Amino acid sequence: METKARLLYLLRILEQYSDEDHPLSTTELIKILLDQYGISSHRTTIKADIEVLQAYGVDIDVINSTQNKYYIAGRTFELPELKLLIDAVESSKFITEKKSEALVAKLTSFASKHQAEQLKRNLCPTDRIKPDNEMIYYIVDTINEAINNGKKISFLYFEYNVKKEKKLKNAGNPYVFSPYALIWSGDFYYVVGYSEKHNGIGGFRVDRITKSATILEDDIIPKPADFNIADYAKSVFQMYGCEECEVTLRCDNSIMKYIIERFGEDVITAAYDMTSFRAFVNVELSPTFYGWVFGFGGKVQILSPAKAKDQYAEMLKSAIETQA
Fold first, then answer.
1. Radius of gyration (Cα) for the chain, nearest Å?
2. Please, what are the domains in the chain?
3. Predicted local distance difference test score (pLDDT) of residue 147
């Protein structure tokens, strides 16, 4: 029994304390086994146990010398991968503060104790208000299971009133819903499907489903033959489903990077004068687009079509009148 336990504890020690820059000698492994787990070992048993672990598939490198040293060479995640995952977890608006801390701790456990110091991130995400609904992860899992099995779900849904109080929609009654897909948009999960309350296709934000979702015995109402989830997501979650057309923008030379960030490197551009350029982009004429243009404080101007210029001017006029 002690032999089997020794193998497992030896693997744990190597995973926790060894890496390329911190190999463990045979003497160090013997000492840790005894001090931490009360298991006696010998240099020959250590060597034999390492060979068993290597045969099992554990990537252990050996530094041959008067006293061999060992370290875990290949891990599930490389350090750059762990750093990227930790940044994503800490930045996400979808993941609660408590769950973020738990996930970061789990991700950190994939590195050695020494490498863990390098995983202390200095990321300061902006506009990342964490939710407080700890049930979100289980709700997403339930919805996904219902989708896979073609079953309806029911749930309670809330919104906030003017006093910032959570108030149940639908008079406090459960929604019965046929889920077709989960969509990730704007750092939030949405479930899209057929709503019996609204007699049509609709979507609900998952973090506003309260308590839990229940999988029902009833099969879902089938998707309409012409329903396309990609088209639905584009129309609803990107630009409110407004009219799409080609717009010509006059842009200050200093904001080329922002044009590329929004429309990609393939965006068509041409010089306008010495200080600005034209960009030809396909967009949906919506408040979101006009708000984006306004955010540059005059460094982006709409040149055409006339209807886009008129809509933008009307939106600005309305905003000024509201402030008056």
1. 29
2. 2-72 (1.10.10.10), 79-119 (no CATH), 136-238 (2.30.30), 244-323 (3.30.70)
3. 95
